[in-house]
Design a protein that fits this description.
Elements lengths: L2 H18 L10 H54 L1
Amino acid sequence: MPLLLALSAYAELEVKLKQITPDWKAIKPSAQMFDMIETLVRGLRSMSQQHDLFTQLLQTADYMRTFSSRHQEIENQTASENGGG
């Protein structure tokens, strides 16, 4: 991760910590605390990405089912026209 993004991520974490703890000035953030929060944020991002991937897979399966159904309809129609004509 580029340094600028890392600093931005830590600034974002600091803002989140201030929102969670109203008495934030009394708390001295530790490296362990930042590591835990960074792990949590990374996990949440990963879960979000997995959800997006799963949604895309479901959409793809739906498109494939629609295509297959339509293809079968066309084959049946063609067979009916050839058999009846």
